[in-house]
Amino acid sequence: MSTDRQLKHVVVVGAGVAGTRAAEALREDGYDGALTIVGAERQAPYHRPPLSKKLLTGKVHRAGVDLAPQFDLNARVLRGASANKLDLSSRTVHFRDENRDLSEQFDGLVIASGAAPREWPGGPVPDGVLMLRTVEDCLTIRERLSSRPRVVVVGGGFIGAEVAASCRSMGLDVVIIEKAASPLLAALGKELAPRWAELHRQHGVDLRLGVGVEAFVGNGKIEAVRLTDGSQVPADVAIIGLGVTPATDWLEGSGLRLEDGVVCDATGAAEGTTDVVAAGDVARWWHPLYERHLRTEHWDDARRQGAAAARTLLAGPDRAEAFDGVPYFWSDQYDVKVQMIGTPSDYDAIEIIEGDPDGWEFVAAYGRDSRTIAVLGTIPNRVHAYRDAISKRAEFPPRQPD
Amino acid sequence: MKVSVDLDTCDGNGVCMSICHEVFEVQEDGLHLLQAEPPDELRRALLGAEVSCPTQAIKVTH
To answer: Which end of chain B is more exposed for a tag (fewer CB within 10 A), N or C?
Structure first.
């Protein structure tokens, strides 16, 4: 495929799955100009999904999560370099590498700077209070787990729930503290999320729901977590999973529209620009199917958006195509894999459409305004059969495909 | 081109299936290879599936 406009230097900020896929797609689609990839981490690119699962439990090693490009990208790769400013008028990205201030001029920019985990808002914490986002975080936690600590997980989102399951599979004592009435409530909804609460209970997790963390107690090293109900939970390690915020600090003042992420049109172009695209956790794309801006934090979406954003950059504003891929994620907890396609935000109906939730083999559909907007399943990969139903906004509940 | 899958490593996440459904199909009992020696026109999709597999379970040889 030949490119539709002549770019001479594309800078990709971010070396996660979105940035790596964008770089690959640029080359695949015939871009032969200069390519610079700026990554904040020192580590070579890696697959993030195993970090809360098999890499944490030691079932795979560091090399087992490598995200090697398919071919030589012929790119200049800067690792351990954090972008700190974008100047759109001179088309320059500024960044800091160790102790040097550097900058790169571009005529095409891919913003794939990802997201940063939310830190504990209560100030300094004792040693042993950890977060999980990067491979180095994961290896640090894994090291701590080897001394068989009592683990407290703060936050019952996917990271918290997966970390808890991984720790239980290693036989560790685990407490989950979640402010809401159930873990995974925001992601799965009030009808299904309690089933995952039960799953964790059955596997021996001590679930503390509807209660928050008041403080981490310990003189130097963590000894306990004090909850908002006054109770105290002994802990040798606390892992905080309070969600992430899109990494847009470096874009403040750039003129880009930032609203919980870089606001993009349906092609992935940052609103108001023709030479800047964004993909992955940092990007909030207009989704033609859902007729709203969506920012997903799904690994598979980041991968596909990265490629689509690269194509948009090469095509130019007049020929860029909308990307309407249906969101997809999975999560592994114990022996249950849950998969979801679509996004259930603001659903007004939910129905079990196959199988039996009590036996953990079922498919459920979420609807809004009588249309199917998402399908969740624990029957392996059955959800993919419903992709058409979602992309065609099939009537709710959707007909069972073959 | 030849494709092989390490079924011990495969987690059945279905990423390969969404990239190259002509070759990969994940069912309840695990991954099925629909063709072990796919034609060259699937090369790009196959390489995409190989590199995108989050468990590195797919190997494509030429």
So the answer is: C
